[in-house]
Amino acid sequence: MTDPRMRTAKFGLGDVVRHRIYPFRGIVFDVDPIFDNTEEWWLAIPEEVRPRKDQPFYHLLAENAETEYVAYVSEQNLVPDTSGEALRHAGIAEVFERDATGIYRIRDRHPN
User: What Pfam families does UniProt report for this protein, alphabetically (predicted)?
Assistant: First the structure.
């Protein structure tokens, strides 16, 4: 039986996104159909901007002007990044390869 709270994710693995409010962008490397982090994490977000739990949440290899990090972001706070600029996050090369058109694809993990 399908959980009625689940819906199709708007973004997929390898999609480059940016935060709707905060100045960072990143690449999706995992998706949770609904919130799957700690209650403590969720409550630490100021109530006036706290996202709903009943939506996809994305694990991002994220970066801003100063640093690179892993972010966990609700779908309501993400928009597509259409800049076409390559990401610099050091973890990307381990998971993705960028093709000639600028699209990030999951690396083939099969041994040669």
Answer: YccV-like
